[in-house]
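Title: Comparing notes on inverse folding

I've been comparing how different people in this forum approach sequence design from structure. To keep things fair, I'm posting one structure and asking everyone to reply with a full sequence. Here's the target:
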């Protein structure tokens, strides 16, 4: 594989980006860095725990939105019944 100057500079930018990100995380007190996902893990013991928490938050938000949709639908049905 032949590395051109562009490829080498691009790789160096990636390395510099991660180095700066790690420095920022260390300033914020974040010990672990998940480079694959670009996530700083402060209080999570692993990436799997982080993913589980994200799924849990997503499911809770989804339930709230579904409940709101059901309430909105009930209001619309009541409004249409009043029109008839």
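Reply #1:
Here's my take.
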């Amino acid at each position: 594989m032949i590395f051109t100057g562009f490829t080498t500079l691009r790789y160096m930018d990636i390395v510099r980006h991660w180095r700066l990100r790690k420095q920022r995380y260390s300033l914020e007190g974040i010990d672990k860095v998940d480079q694959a996902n670009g996530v700083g893990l402060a209080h999570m013991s692993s990436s799997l725990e982080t993913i589980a928490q994200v799924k849990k938050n997503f499911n809770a938000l989804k339930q709230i939105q579904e409940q709101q949709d059901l309430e909105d639908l009930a209001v619309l049905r009541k409004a249409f019944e009043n029109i008839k």
